[in-house]
Amino acid sequence: MRWLISTVVVGTFLFLGSSALAATDYLIVTPDSLAPVAKAFSDYRKSKGYETEILPISKIYNEKTLYSSRAWMIRKAVTKIYQKSDKSKPFYLLIVGDTVSNKLPLTTMERVPCYYSKDNSEQTASVGRKDATIATDNFYGCVDFKDDIPEIAVGRVSIKTVKEGMLVLKKIKDYESSAKNGPWRRKLTFFASEGGFGVLDRLLEWLFTRMADQYIPYDFDLNMTYANPGSPYVYLPDRFSNKIIQRANEGSLILTYIGHGQDKVLDTLKWRGRRYPILTYKDLDKIQCRGRYPIFFVVACFTGRYDRGNGTDCIAENLLKNEKGPSAILASSRISHPYSNSVLQKDFIDQVCRKRIKTIGEAMRRAKSAMCLNFDRQRRQLELFSVLLVPKKERVELARTHCSMYNLFGDPAMTIQTPDRLLMRVAKTGAGEKKKSLEVLLPEGASGQAIVSLESERSTLLRPVLKALPADLSTEAARETVKQSYRNANNKVVRSWKVEVKNGQLVWPEAPDLSLPQISGKYYVKVYAWGKGWQKAGSLPLGELPRSVGKGYLPEEKKEN
Fold first, then answer.
1. Residue 410's Cα: distance from chain center in Å?
2. Neighbouring residues of 445: CB distance < 8 A, sequence distance ≥ 6
3. Tens of pLDDT along 357-394?
């Protein structure tokens, strides 16, 4: 009898397979009308090793259910499945479908509603708003029912049709295929508008400089385009939007906008009594990354207002549906605050670039948690400088509201294509600064190519730049001067080399010159190597030239940077 029972149990296990006993770690909530999209996402994630489950909203409530109860019922259903999951692994919730707008009856079963969180912050709720509520999906990730810090990574593929959903999935598959490895994979592209916040502007610029110099690993490349006529990173006003589109289309790991925004337009560059758009709704179709899809973090108000309810998409939704646009978008659904924006941006980049969190949803979930709970050295410095501008009680409330404001438009389980860490060292081979050799640890037998560079600290200006835009830009010579200044500001390369990778080794035509230039500042040696199916990036501090020694500038380079 015991033998018979054992046989039945073992036989059943073999018939069902081990996956039948595995707990769900990728849950999809969807309306019945978008079931084909949910199944396509489910099949794709299953092929990547996830245990998936599809939860139709028709299994949670019906059209007679009060609208105000629906979000709570979804969260309870999600929580029930999450509680059975393996807590040692991340859990992902994908919402398929747009939210319900005021153009649709609240009884509709074709959309997945968002939740409306209360905004108690005096810094945001009182600024140009009457409703003082926040449209959010973060609510569905807060399954402990205690606070606004999510335990689940949540993302929404905000679509209205099956065709749109399949297009988004195709773009995500292309992004994860690693078919187009190259230097763009380690690039962080920033563009920004003037804040107009007075003292707070200087604080935020200081924070960005500190983050660029000390917080973002030098494994990564940075470039900046700033709509401030007094900045060396400014570009021609009438071509500013074109430059942003060009930068986006070059491809990057993360594309970040910092500044003012609305649900259909970003800010403008103000110069000599005129306003020049940074990026308009009509410009979004010009973003054609063609396989070099970035993650787009829009650190601004309203650009993720997916409940706007007038039949058109917000900027984040538009870009998600652009088949050659970003692979994922992080954006705010309401008026956000520059203080919390800066903290969340810092923490998200930290999760991706320093901690190398593998998925977009988990990186954002951890960034939100860090915004509320983590007070590292840079955060403490920011708190010290902001104490007179934002009271402590308000800073706590702002962290809570920004957990709700910022939503992920995309698949939370999407793997971020961050280069693997490259182990490297610089060894002395003889007397003198030039007598150094660079040693790197590449995959055994690997072939491909590499870029090696000697670069300055990011705040250092190696080449001459303008202090402000010229008053007259009517001549080609004046316009070229601005272009050259912009290139010089972004060019931190002292020397660089393109070398082959053969049998896991860098093949040098001649020994690289790693001597420091006579310009004050810190210097780094950087390597990015890649081939079919692999990529690695690394950096090492090479030395520092004291202020008393350094002088002058390097020669200008005419090529675009």
1. 12
2. 503, 504
3. 999 999 999 999 999 997 777 777 777 666 667 777 88
Q: What is the pLDDT of residue 122?
A: 67
Predicted local distance difference test score (pLDDT) of residue 3: 38
CATH number of the domain encompassing residue 26: 3.40.50.10390
Q: Name every residue whose Cβ is closer than 8 Å to that of residue 430 and which is 6 or more positions away in sequence.
A: none
Residues of the chain with pLDDT under 70: 1-21, 102, 122-131, 178-179, 196-204, 206-207, 384-388, 429-435, 548-551, 558-561
Asked whether the beta carbons of 518 and 527 are under 8 A apart, the reply is no
| 537, containing H or E segment | strand 534-545
The answer to whether residue 212 is domain-embedded is: no
By the 8 A CB rule, do 65 and 272 touch?
no
Look at residue 17 in the predicted model and tell me its pLDDT: 38
Q: What is the pLDDT of residue 506?
A: 94
What is the enclosing helix (H) or strand (E) of 254?
A: strand 254-258
Distance, CA of 548 to CA of 333 (rounded, Å): 50
Rounded to whole angstroms, what are the CA distances from 330 to 188, 192, 257, 351, 422? Answer: 15, 16, 11, 14, 28
Strand-pair category, 328-332 with 406-409: antiparallel
- Residue 200 has a pLDDT of 60
Beta-carbon contacts of 87 under 8 Å, excluding residues fewer than 6 positions away, are none
Q: According to the model, what pLDDT value does residue 199 have? A: 59
Report pLDDT for 102: 67
Contact 341/367 with Cβ under 8 angstroms? no
- Burial classification of residue 146, based on how many CB atoms lie within 10 Å of its CB (0-12 exposed, 13-18 middle, 19 or more buried): exposed
Residue 425 lies in a domain: yes
Residue 115 near residue 71, CB atoms below 8 Å:
yes
How buried is residue 443: exposed, middle or buried, by Cβ count under 10 Å (0-12/13-18/19+)?
Answer: middle
In the DSSP assignment, the letter for residue 105 is: -
| CA triple 269-274-276, angle to 5 deg | 35
Residues 200, 265: Cα–Cα separation, whole Å = 23
Sign of CA dihedral 170, 175, 177, 183: positive
Q: List phi, psi (to 5°) of 168.
A: -65, -45
Residue 164's pLDDT is: 98
Position 65 in a domain: yes
Would you state the pLDDT for residue 22? 82
404 falls within a domain: no
pLDDT at 435: 65
CATH number, residue 465:
2.60.40
Domain that holds residue 520: 420-545
What's the total number of domains in the chain?
2
The 8 Å CB, 24+ separation contacts for 371-379 are: 371/340, 371/343, 371/344, 371/347, 371/399, 371/402, 371/403, 372/147, 372/148, 372/149, 372/399, 372/400, 372/403, 373/149, 374/347, 378/207, 378/210, 378/211, 378/214, 378/215, 378/346, 379/343, 379/346
* 65 phi, psi to nearest 5 deg: -65, 135
